[in-house]
């Protein structure tokens, strides 16, 4: 699929993927804070309800199933997927906006989104974030206190499948085990400086 992004910018986007609770948001917020002029987050659309503190248009574009299905049918999305009972997706507009600003776009997507992005001309770097174990993942998701027991179960069930895809050789350019946060961040920064920021 042609995303229209390649025609605007030659900066390769960065895709962050990993089970819910693995630390993607935490790590990417650090990147955005340290390199505000270099990176920007693609704001996804979702049908899930905002968590306390989440701002529409900043963390997500919060929408409903019907509007999102219609926009997907109209070809407005690069990828979209169902996750834990909700729809999530990356609009062409959100990625194009960042390309026009001359910044590197960061996408935070689950594995089905990654599979779809691989069929487009976006050509990003792929980084998989994981925890040392699924037990640690569960502990972090519980400590975050954002999920109901049902939503937590769904996310942990999906995490098994995501880990399998993430650990398969060739699927990602880099796998980072987010054990000690500062160390994981250093590893990500190292990857960014050697690869993503190299062509700057
Ligand atoms: P994701 O965006 O992948 O769902 P988050 O960034 O929200 O994950 O992280 C899940 C929870 O784990 C958050 O409460 C976050 O503060 C915490 N967390 C992230 N990294 C670490 C770490 N290395 N050690 C301990 N807690 C962490
Ligand atoms: P959360 O509800 O915790 O914000 O996100 C749940 C999952 O949806 C995470 O794994 C996150 O990476 C994924 N996600 C967020 N935005 C998108 C998107 O635009 N597309 C896809 N495919 N997944 C997304």
Beta-strand residue percentage: 15-25%
How many individual domains? 1
Bound small molecules, which ones? adenosine-5'-diphosphate, guanosine-5'-monophosphate
Q: What would CATH call the homologous superfamily?
A: P-loop containing nucleotide triphosphate hydrolases
Which fold name is given in CATH as the topology?
Rossmann fold
Total count of strands: 9
Shape: globular
Mean pLDDT: 96
What is the CA-CA span between the terminal residues? Answer: 26 Å
Please state the structural category: alpha/beta
Secondary-structure blueprint of this entry?
Elements lengths: L13 E4 L6 H11 L4 E3 L3 E2 L14 E2 L2 H9 L3 E7 L2 E6 H9 L3 E5 L2 H7 L7 E6 L3 H11 L4 H19 L6 E4 L3 H16 L4
Parallel strand pairs: 1-7, 1-8, 2-7, 3-4, 8-9
Antiparallel strand pairs: 3-6, 5-6
Helix pairs in contact: 5-6
The chain binds adenosine-5'-diphosphate and guanosine-5'-monophosphate.
What does this structure look like?
This protein is α/β, with parallel strands linked by helices. It has helices spanning 24-34, 65-73, 92-100, 111-117, 134-144, 149-167, 181-196, and strands spanning 14-17, 39-41, 45-46, 61-62, 77-83, 86-91, 104-108, 125-130, 174-177. A hairpin with a 2-residue loop joins strand 5 and strand 6. The mean pLDDT is 96. It binds adenosine-5'-diphosphate (ADP) and guanosine-5'-monophosphate (5GP). Adenosine-5'-diphosphate (ADP) binds next to helix 1, helix 5 and helix 7.
């Amino acid at each position: 699929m042609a995303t229209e992004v390649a025609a605007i910018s030659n900066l390769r986007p960065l895709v962050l993927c990993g089970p819910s609770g693995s630390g993607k948001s935490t790590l990417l917020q650090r990147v955005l804070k340290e390199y505000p002029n270099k990176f920007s987050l693609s704001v996804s659309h979702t049908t899930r309800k905002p968590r306390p503190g989440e701002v529409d248009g900043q963390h997500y574009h919060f929408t409903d199933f019907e509007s999102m299905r219609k926009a997907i049918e109209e070809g407005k999305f690069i990828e979209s997927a169902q996750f834990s009972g909700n729809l999530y997706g990356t609009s062409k507009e959100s990625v194009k906006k960042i390309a026009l600003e001359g910044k590197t776009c960061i996408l935070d997507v689950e594995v089905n989104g990654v599979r779809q992005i691989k069929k487009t001309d976006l050509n990003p770097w792929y980084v998989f974030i994981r925890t040392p174990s699924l037990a640690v993942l569960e502990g972090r998701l519980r400590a975050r206190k954002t999920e109901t027991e049902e939503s937590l179960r769904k996310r942990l069930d999906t995490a098994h499948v995501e880990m399998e895809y993430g650990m398969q050789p060739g699927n990602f350019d880099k796998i980072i085990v987010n054990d000690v946060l500062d160390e994981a961040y250093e590893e990500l920064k190292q990857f960014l400086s050697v690869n993503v920021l190299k062509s700057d």
